[in-house]
Amino acid sequence: xxxxxxxxxxxxxxxxxxGNVRTALxxxxxxxxxxxxxxxxxxxxDQDRSQQQFIEAIETDLKWLGLDxxxxxxxxxxxxxxxxxxxxKLAENGYAYRCFCSETQISLDRxxxxxxxxxxxxxxxxxxxxxxxSVLKAESESFVWRLSAHNDEGEVVVVDALRGDVTFALRDLxxxxxxxxxxxxxxxxxxxxxxxxxxxxxxxxxxxxLSNSAYQVWLLQRLDHQPPVYLHHGLLLGQDGAxxxxxxxxxxxxxxxxxxxxxxxxxxxxSRLGHPNMPEEAHCIEQLLSHFxxxxxxxxxxxxxxxxxWRWHTRLLHEVDSATLVPMIQPYVMEAIEHADQIxxxxxxxxxxxxxQNIERAGDVKHFLHLLHAYAPMDADALEILQSAxxxxxxxxxxxxxxxxxxxxxxxxxxxxAKTGCKGKALFMPLRVALSGATHGPDMSSIVSFLxxxxxxxxxxxxxxxxxxx
Length: 470
Hints:
By secondary structure, this protein is mostly helical. The chain is built from 18 helices and 12 strands. It is elongated.
């Protein structure tokens, strides 16, 4: 077999969304699995809606996800002449024709067919116009171009690596429009011709394109091109079983990046959809590739789960090192603490190491800012515990801390217990919230080690003042 070549071919008319990510990922995985090439092609023939900002945004999103492409990005608009030549060749051989029927006439024909229990296809009224008649009418009447695909006999076979050969009888096909009345091409012809020009060997896409593939195989064969092998996977649905949309939980990649999502979490969650061979322990793209079997991807629809994506995010977040975590949490610290830019890098790294296992998202560090600043705000539950403990408790705790020679958590807690008579949660929780500002988090021995003598002194003194209402 020649080298595998796949492609991701978005229209640059909007941002990259979850459905786009799945298509891009599956084509990327297939190409990399087989040592082939993965191409990025912008289908930008809709000049009114295609925008440079979306081209740049899609490229940024793909790079962020780690889905690199081979060579420079391709543009469908560069092949405009080839599209026109392909249409001319089809027309010369009787495989495409001008259609002058109005929308009103077509609508009436379809209603009549439906009333007779027939499929609402185009009736072929203009198919048998002679070339001269067609040219003459085109001088004064609006028209579209259609493929002459419908036929009482014959069939077209879509080679599908997931479903096997899918056979379509030509009598069941319509004569689809390939050029609109304004002269612009619809999706069918440019997409297929570009695949031939770009040498695409395999195209992975949703099963909503299966009928499109039948038309594209038909026209490619009549243009003497080899159609790609298709892999029509099941559609990506929302949690409610409806087609995925913003209403049913779809997101742009840009939104997820701004929400602090790890790109690997999106890749992990997406790779497992409809893929039973993907083990839970595969935690990097190399492992995902080693287990990826395109032919095992489900042909049934799959449901997207934000919860599953964020579960992977938390799991992977707990696996990153402190150096990786620091730039993720730094913006939240800078936003909340005045002069946070004066915090030394070593302290920031130690802070990241301390709280890393206790956060699910980068923004969760806001619960632990007290560890970086003695007067950082704390949440209402922590403040209530602190005030309930009272000023005298914290004065006794401060005296016990300053009197210790070996300043460790267990010794200090034992001395505070002896001085105050408190035990259990009444002892533990007031000390935790005084030092960390939170009711949960890292173990106290690690907190004591991180804060040191002066850090703990400052926080207990701050807690005493708060409890006293000072």
